[in-house]
Write a structure and sequence with these properties.
homodimer; 136 residues; alpha+beta; Ubiquitin-like (UB roll); 15% helix; zinc ion binding (chains A, B); PRA-CH (chains A, B)
Chain lengths: 136, 136
């Protein structure tokens, strides 16, 4: 398919990488906070589109990962956005309190400022106790 | 380095993939809109931290890409966030009108809804004329 069709067309032709995966950003549909970034294979994307439930491919476990199947922290997908060259997705999701397995609402709970000494600063507080959640 | 240190520590130890790259999400620091996703190598990340200017590694051109060097649409980086396993970054950026080379403010100008027929819908209007910009 030509570049112009991919960039300007309305046909959804997601481009998976050599491992058959495409990165997907989960973004809170209400607040705009980026919650996590994970990968999808074709099956995970089709399942997400069919069910509206955020589903990924776990690269460590090498299998379909229905987000929340263990933790209960599911994602209801309102909208799926695709970028210009169709090799990255955003899922606009509705979620409960706690999307990161470490205990925070977002996986992005640490930050640094340009020009600083490259140490991270904690920018969030935990919203749930992961030990209680995952040891159930 | 142990998983707990990577996840809970304040040492910045970004994990680059087999190609020496880490994905970076540029997010508007004011509006929360995700503007683009690109890749950084070590040099691009160090340059971004040192200068506060959003800089990536172009996989197509195989070289450092100081965002805006051709288009003028630069990114002033306010903050760099890292996720739990330190293999993905968010750059909180201040930008002008137009970050995508196709002419939109964001690369994510098309979307579909779960349960739909998988055709995309245009969800944005162009904010500048890329032909005028890139033919200068």
């Amino acid at each position: 398919m030509k570049s112009k069709q991919i960039e300007e067309g309305l046909q959804f032709t997601p481009k998976f990488n050599a491992e058959g995966l495409i990165p997907a950003i989960a973004q809170d549909a209400e607040t705009g906070q980026v919650l996590m970034v994970a990968w999808m294979n074709r099956e995970a994307l089709d399942y997400t589109i069919a069910t509206g439930r955020g589903t990924y491919f776990s690269r460590s476990r090498k299998k379909l990962w229905k987000k929340g199947e263990e933790s209960g922290h599911i994602q209801q997908v309102q909208q799926i956005l695709v970028d210009c060259d169709q090799d990255c997705l955003i899922l606009k999701v509705t979620v409960d309190a706690g999307q990161c397995h470490v205990g925070y609402q977002s996986c992005f709970y640490r930050a640094l400022k340009p020009g600083s000494d490259k140490d991270l600063e904690l920018i969030a507080e935990k919203t749930y106790d992961p030990e209680a959640t995952y040891k159930k």
